[in-house]
Amino acid sequence: MIVRPHPTFFEKTFAIHGSILVAILPKVLFACLTGLAAYLVHSDDDPFFAFTPFTALGVAISLFLGFRNNACYERWWEGRKQWGAQVICTRNLARTCLTFLGSEVSIDDVGVAGIEIDETNPKSPTSRSIASIISSLGVCHSHLLRGQLRGIWLSGHPKPPNPSYPADAVVDALKYAPEGHHESLANAKNQPDAALRLAASWVQRCLATQTIDTIAAQSILKDLNDLSSVQGACERLSTALVPFPYSLLVHRTIIFYIVLAPFAMAGDLGQYTAPFNAIVAYTFFGLDEVARQMEQPFGDEPLCLSMSAICRTIETSVKEAFGEEASPPLAPDQRHCLM
Amino acid sequence: MIVRPHPTFFEKTFAIHGSILVAILPKVLFACLTGLAAYLVHSDDDPFFAFTPFTALGVAISLFLGFRNNACYERWWEGRKQWGAQVICTRNLARTCLTFLGSEVSIDDVGVAGIEIDETNPKSPTSRSIASIISSLGVCHSHLLRGQLRGIWLSGHPKPPNPSYPADAVVDALKYAPEGHHESLANAKNQPDAALRLAASWVQRCLATQTIDTIAAQSILKDLNDLSSVQGACERLSTALVPFPYSLLVHRTIIFYIVLAPFAMAGDLGQYTAPFNAIVAYTFFGLDEVARQMEQPFGDEPLCLSMSAICRTIETSVKEAFGEEASPPLAPDQRHCLM
Amino acid sequence: MIVRPHPTFFEKTFAIHGSILVAILPKVLFACLTGLAAYLVHSDDDPFFAFTPFTALGVAISLFLGFRNNACYERWWEGRKQWGAQVICTRNLARTCLTFLGSEVSIDDVGVAGIEIDETNPKSPTSRSIASIISSLGVCHSHLLRGQLRGIWLSGHPKPPNPSYPADAVVDALKYAPEGHHESLANAKNQPDAALRLAASWVQRCLATQTIDTIAAQSILKDLNDLSSVQGACERLSTALVPFPYSLLVHRTIIFYIVLAPFAMAGDLGQYTAPFNAIVAYTFFGLDEVARQMEQPFGDEPLCLSMSAICRTIETSVKEAFGEEASPPLAPDQRHCLM
Amino acid sequence: MIVRPHPTFFEKTFAIHGSILVAILPKVLFACLTGLAAYLVHSDDDPFFAFTPFTALGVAISLFLGFRNNACYERWWEGRKQWGAQVICTRNLARTCLTFLGSEVSIDDVGVAGIEIDETNPKSPTSRSIASIISSLGVCHSHLLRGQLRGIWLSGHPKPPNPSYPADAVVDALKYAPEGHHESLANAKNQPDAALRLAASWVQRCLATQTIDTIAAQSILKDLNDLSSVQGACERLSTALVPFPYSLLVHRTIIFYIVLAPFAMAGDLGQYTAPFNAIVAYTFFGLDEVARQMEQPFGDEPLCLSMSAICRTIETSVKEAFGEEASPPLAPDQRHCLM
Amino acid sequence: MIVRPHPTFFEKTFAIHGSILVAILPKVLFACLTGLAAYLVHSDDDPFFAFTPFTALGVAISLFLGFRNNACYERWWEGRKQWGAQVICTRNLARTCLTFLGSEVSIDDVGVAGIEIDETNPKSPTSRSIASIISSLGVCHSHLLRGQLRGIWLSGHPKPPNPSYPADAVVDALKYAPEGHHESLANAKNQPDAALRLAASWVQRCLATQTIDTIAAQSILKDLNDLSSVQGACERLSTALVPFPYSLLVHRTIIFYIVLAPFAMAGDLGQYTAPFNAIVAYTFFGLDEVARQMEQPFGDEPLCLSMSAICRTIETSVKEAFGEEASPPLAPDQRHCLM
Q: Could you give the CA distance from residue A337 to residue A16 in angstroms, rounded to a whole number?
């Protein structure tokens, strides 16, 4: 995500970082060339076409671009809302666990049923509080979800730009899961879902030992269900793109316009045909490119969501809830980009 | 659903699979013909019409196409959201059942009231866990819903393209229901609803034997209600289409435009009238066709939702929750189509 | 509602049933006449107006029509969503009642407080299950709501087209209410609300006799509240139409356009002025008429919602839940119309 | 609110009541004058401007008007939805109270803590049922909310058109509150909020005397929270208008257009400039005026919401629930206006 | 926020305060200059360009401006809705606490676990009611959220216009937190979240001492979760702006239009080119500026939300609930601005 909150007039006029001009430069130059060709071959006496019929194509382009842009922005914004909900749900989970379980109930109190805990490992002491274990599994879920989403996105690529992303996410995630869960998490087909199931197994443990009553279990399960909703919505966004024919219709209609309209404009615009066509191409392809990047909000292109930074926010919230030291928030890089 | 996540510039310019060009080719050729006719009969001295009045028709077409496209896309997206919710709800159901029932409570504990279970059949042992039975009925509900929706869609067809679809879905569904339920499911007028009712009958059984308390029953019923909401919304989408007159208005106004506008453009465009009219027809009929396919998101046309693949995802989630081996996810065919 | 799910190209071009052409024919002919008048009185030397200033009116019309059409479609779709929710809620109510009350708890167990039951009447035996009574009151609520909504709609008419509608609905409704409730239902100012209150009185009876606990009562009340929400939303839709000035603005601006524009077009279009004006009138008044019919989704015009068919679906679901024989679903008439 | 559900063609063409023509007549006449001036000073040889550049202004106006109209309509419709929710919530409150409290539990049973009840007053007998007291406080809340909203709206006026409105609402409200609450209600800074707090104090009383359990209290509080949500949303709508600059931008751009465009049209339209400009002004200012009235849905202009009629509906529902005689619904006045 | 509820015709035509004219004056003057330059260098015989091709740019600008304006308005309105929800949730929290805890349960009853209370300080007596402490922490949360949001906004500025804002908010917030919480609140990385956690710790305390049951705790936690949702949504709005490339596309396309279009209009408009270009610039840059201010609803520019006034409303509601004297509401300053 590009983070430049208060740009000045000149930054807005000449900024390169954060602009999509670089990404569409070849297309803009192509429009320059067709404009130049139209200027060179046209004659004032016998113009190829009048411009008026092009209003029909203009109507179609504005319809297609407008629709696709709206649809993609709404996908992007829904993706951001879901990750915002992930932050809220993890905080709620920690608050609920602390309220109903307190910070004293530990593994010793509820036992370990169906879960392998290496009791000899000092890093997963059985005295760890259950509230903290369940809440940390929420953080674990966030990291695994980040990895899963980027993995879905990468798998469609011929050359993944950064294949270590999902692996990184799993490493981050395992820091927040008790040692005994590592194997079952790593082997799961749907890793984030497995994290939620493991959290629920602790709730069941607490119920079985009557540490909490069914009301409290209902409240904790409600928070886990909310995390599950976020995951389901993100999976939907990353597997169901805007139907493919839209991008074809937009793309092809703009190509028609950029190639044909200069021949209709050359009589009116003369030597200015090429730059004018380039400006029109900049606006049309620019919006098309912004829409394309926002269509898949969980990728790693400049406009995609800063899921790593959000995961850090989630870590901080849960750590603070249990009085642990939190890492500082992630900052954007020199190109104003925050992932 | 067409699955081509990262198309290149040339794929977008020349792709055939996933394009709707093939579907509307006859209409585009028809526009070529009217354009050719207009070019042949027009005379520069006495044009039939000026183009200007056609802006009124252009306004109407952009209004109709824009509205219908938005309405149909929202239907398609709501359909996808509902199936995404189906995934979420089935996972929640499994998590809730495991938490409140554990994996040990079995048919032996709660008895079998009002449900015929063939105890001699080794495939439906009475020792099967209730949590697994209820969760599997969620998977069963998904398959039955898929069959029901495709059945509603097919019933409007003169020649159903693949009449075995709904039957397939029932076969898949019955794998996830205890043997004793097969007959009542098969005879039900509304099969998915019957699956939910059967799941609720197990909850009642657990209540009657005091295996769970009313709080836990409330939680499980809540998940069943969520599945019921998905079903109701899908039934609504498949029985209440965008009002019929819209597609008439769109269709007829485009026909008027495609037939009449060339006579107004022939003076300006000359020999280019026919290809230009074909391009305009491609954009208008293209959007119309995309909208038509998305209007019924539960059909089996290329843009319709990949309900079979989603059902597989649901199967995987529930199987993993009970430690069973899951089948691999469905993959798109050579034409990039995933159903 | 018009039900023609898979129309062919020719059906879409020439269909009469389901088209709104018949409803707006007088207006289209009126446009023909003004077009003819303009053609007859115009002279090529001294045209009345240029067409260009009409773009301002065109902007206004597209704004008004587009807005009104969106608003009315959203009303229609919200109406359909509410009735879809009615289906979902009634099913949920039956499932909840069966789970918490089972099918054995009967009037004999809870007594009859404050409700007159004619115990001598064989059709309302005191051994009837409470779950069935409460669920049937949900069906009763659906029929009464249908009657109430159509009654509100009819009351604005000079000549009600079919005054027996609401009465029919009450007859259908009373079949699903115990005999003892008939009088209080018939006398209620707000009949559907009374049905919900009667259902709640049975819940209170069960509470008072400790047949269920407060958790179960909370769940059943939740389902009744959902039915109440549907009712409230439908009452809102049927009493608060799109503000009246909008339809005036749309109507008058189209009239201005249809009357004046031909005089600006006659110079360009000559003898084609009249048919062209008729086509423009068809598109503008066509959209206006579709919007008008959808504005009141609970009326009995062709585009209005098929509330009777939905009530039949509700009946079927509840009957199946209690093992009773259900009637077949309603089918559209020869004009493809399903009410 | 204007109530004319089934207007005929002629009513729509010539209606005065319910039209906003009267409100914008001065502006339409102003447009006539500028059109007349343009006609008088123009000369065919040397027109002031060409009309083409005005398309840029037309784009801006359609953008501004379209946006502002949508925003204001959504405010109006949200206001109506909230009041519809108020109806639903009050009915739910009565149903919930009757179910959990029955009609027998009275002040005698729960005592009167912290609330002054004049026991000598025959109109507030201590034998009154608690269910009825709490439900009536819901009606009281509706009336107080109506008064509060109209009071916020009036306070911005130089000359309040009917200053007795809020006072009337308070009088209506107090009829539904026990005598002992009158003083604390009248003195509260936020009267509707105080009504909800008083209702909650009765719930607390019931809890303290163990008349109900915490589940029942939770259900009743949920209904009170829903009423609180409606109130909060209405306060938001009435204090946060569409940002002021929008109405300036719309207003000023229309003024520019109405003043300048005639000078561009006079060459084309000649003597028809003045009426044509008036028609354009009617459409633009008409939409602007409709938007202005809908922006503040809780005022007392013709398009504002019929809050008094809705309060009467609420009264009826609660009275029927307790078997009391209800007043007839309010009817629109001769100008088809229902407030 | 600009507060001018009932402006007259002349106020709307000539108002300065609340207009955004001042903010965009340099850009309007720049448009004057380019218009003047175009007028001076143009010649009637050889115009630079025809205006017609500019319709393509006009389409792009209307698309960009329309989209960005909608997106920003929705952000602003969502921000306002969230703060409206904050008001509702705080009122609900007070009502819930009073109902389940009453006003008598005090620190003496539940003890002070894990929280340092300076018992020698007369301002935080241990006899203070728990209901009041928890509710006041809701007010505290509101102030801290206000400070946090303005802090995020300020941190992007080169010169913060009023750096004391967030500090002020913390001072206001601490008035509503018990003394013993001051240090942990001040040191928290996420202060508002810490306030909610402290409130939950009191709920846990009440649970541990069995002052309330788990149902009541569930209800209070639900209200805290709602406050947490508001906070999460506000953090999302303030950290995820509309993607940066949009403002570049809008800005640059307007600049192109303002610089180039005069050369196409000079032939038609002559001496009126400069003022006409200024009017067009006013409308385009005006909308751009309104959108820019609304994009960040939590800043301190004139159109930003009046968070201080809303916090005062929240204070009033909670104070009234506990019978304390409330401060008067904040009023707009002379420039009609309310922050």
A: 12
Q: Where are the domains of chain C?
A: 26-73+245-295, 83-241+305-321
Name the token pair of E17. Answer: 């305060």
Which residues fall within 8 angstroms of residue B147, CB to CB, at 6 or more apart?
A: B165, B166, B167, B168, B169, B170, B173, B191
Question: Residues of C with CB below 8 A from B228's CB?
Answer: 88, 91-92, 95
E-assigned strand segments in chain D:
none
Per CB-CB distance under 8 Å, the chain C contacts of D290 are 243, 245-246, 249
Helix (H) or strand (E) holding C6: none
Give the span between the Cα atoms of D78 and D69, in whole angstroms.
14
Token digits of residue B102: 């554990």
- What are the tens digits of pLDDT across the range C167-222? 789 999 999 999 889 988 988 999 999 999 999 999 999 999 999 999 999 999 99
Work out the widest C-alpha separation in chain C, in whole angstroms: 94
Cα torsion at C88, C91, C92, C97 (round to 10°)?
A: 160
- Give me the amino acid identity at E22: V
Q: How far apart are alpha carbons E179 and E202 in whole angstroms?
A: 14
CB E19 within 8 A of CB D257: no
The neighbour count for residue A216, using CB atoms within 10 Å, is 24
Name every chain A residue with its beta carbon within 8 A of the beta carbon of E231.
88
| B316's tokens | 């995987």
Q: Do the beta carbons of residue E316 and residue E329 sit within 8 Å?
A: yes
Put simply, the answer to whether A158 touches B18 (Cβ < 8 Å) is no
Tokens describing residue C1: 């509602």
Position D281 pLDDT exceeds 80: yes
Task: Say whether D215 and E218 touch across the interface (CB within 8 A).
Answer: no
Assigned token pair, A299: 């990728």
Task: List the 31-50 stretch of B: residues with Cβ below 8 A of C.
Answer: 48-50
User: Residue A273 is which amino acid?
Assistant: T
Residue D241's CB is within 10 A of a number of other CB atoms, namely 20
B297: which 2 tokens?
């998101």
Asked if E272's CB is within 8 angstroms of D48's CB, the reply is: yes
Is A42 in contact with A267 (CB distance < 8 Å)?
yes
CA A29-A33-A38 angle, to 5 degrees, is 145
What's the token pair of residue E152? 């995020």
pTM: 0.95
Minimum CA–CA partner of C78 in chain D: D81
From the list B81, B136, B93, B98, the residue with the least C-alpha distance to B310 is: B81
Nearest to E99 among D203, D236, D248 (CB): D203
| Phi-psi label, residue C68: left if phi above 0, alpha if psi -120 to 50, beta otherwise | alpha
Secondary structure class of E301 (helix, strand, coil): coil
Task: Give per-residue pLDDT as tens, D82-120.
Answer: 999 999 999 999 999 999 999 888 888 887 655 555 555
Q: Are E220 and E130 within 8 A, CB to CB?
A: no
The percent of chain C in helix, strand and coil, each rounded to the nearest 5, is 70, 0, 30
Q: How confident is the model at residue C240 (pLDDT cuts 50, 70, 90)?
A: very high
Read off the tokens for A284. Answer: 């049309």
ipTM, 2 dp:
0.92
**Dihedrals phi, psi of C2, to nearest 5 degrees:** -85, 125
The secondary structure of A203-258 as a DSSP string is: HHHHHHTTSS-HHHHHHHHHHHHHHHHHHHHHHHHHHSPSPHHHHHHHHHHHHHHH
End-to-end CA distance of chain C: 6
Contact call for residues C277 and C29 (beta carbons, < 8 A): no
Pull the structure tokens for residue B12.
Answer: 């977008």
Question: How far is residue E101's CA from residue E131's CA, in Å, rounded to a whole number?
Answer: 6
Q: Which of C104, C170, C194, C176 has its CA nearest to residue C135?
A: C176
Q: Does D233 touch chain C (CB under 8 A)?
A: no
